[in-house]
Amino acid sequence: MRIMRRTESASAAVPAGGASTDWIERLRAAPKRADGRVVRRAGRREGLSMADLLRNVHALALAFAGDDALIPGARVAVVSEPTHEWLAVDLACRVRGLVSVMIDPAAPIARLAFILRNSGARWLFYGAAPPRDALRALLDGLVHAPHPVAFDGDRRLREGTSITRLMAATTAQRADVPLARLRVAVAADDPATLVYTAGAAQAAPKGVVLTRRNLDAQLDALGARLAIGPRDVALAFLPPARAAQRLLDWLCLMRGAALVQVPRPAEAARALARE
Length: 275
Prior knowledge:
The chain is 37% helix and 17% strand. The protein has 11 helices and 11 strands. It has helices spanning 23-28, 50-65, 84-96, 109-119, 132-140, 163-168, 171-174, 179-182, 212-225, 243-255, 268-274; strands at residues 2-6, 39-41, 75-79, 99-103, 123-126, 147-150, 161-162, 191-196, 207-211, 232-236, 258-261. It has a 7-stranded mixed beta sheet, sandwiched between helices. Strands 1-10-11-2 form a 4-stranded mixed beta sheet, sandwiched between helices. The two termini are 17 Å apart. The model is unreliable at 1-18 (pLDDT under 50).
C-alpha cells in the first residue's frame, strides 16, 4: 500500500496514545521537516508546506460554510487519485462536520452514478477521472446532481467550478473568519466518512459508515505500531478511496513525514527508484 524509506539516521516514533482528536491541532504540532515540504508529487521538487495545506483547508471550509445545504452530516464526494487536493477537502469536511465519500477513480461510470445517488452527495470534487463527457452525461442523468468541482481547471464543467477558483473566492474572508470559528461541534459517534465496498461485478456496492471515533481509533492503532517520523519519506500510490491508504497518509503528515504522491499505481516502482 505504501513504501517508506528512512532518510539519514533512524527517527523515533511520536507517541500516538491519547493523542488529540483535533486533527488540525495534531497537524500543527507535527515535527517540522528541514525542507518544509510535507506533500509533493513524485518527480517534482516543489510541494506544499503544512501552512499551505492548512490555508487550503481554511479556504474550503469557508466555501462549505457559504452553502446552506451543507449542514452537519451532509455528504461531499471525492473521486481522486493521490493528490494534495483531496487532503484539503477531507480535512475541511471534518472541520465542518460533513461526511466525505471517497470514490475510486477507476470505478466504472455506472458505479460512480450509483454511489452519488445512494450517498446523496451535495458536492463532487474530481481529479483526472472520469472522462469529462462521461461525467457531464452522468450528472445530467441525476435528479439531484452534486455541484461539480474540478481539481484541474482544464476539466471544469460549465455548470461547475475549479478548486482554485473556489478557494480564491474566499480570500477576503480568511482574515475576518479564522479557521477555529468555522469548526462545527459534532459527537465522536457522528458519521465522518462513507466507504463503499467493492462488491461483486454485478452487485450494487454497499455503503459503510465510519464515525469520528472509528477513524481516531484506527489512526492511533496504526500510530502505536508504525515508527514514522520527520526524517521519513512515504510513497502514496493508492487512491484515498482505500481507507487504509487514507489513514496512513494522515498519520504520516501528523508525524512529520514527507508524503510523495504517485497518481497511478503502475508508476510506483519508477517513483521509488527515483525518489
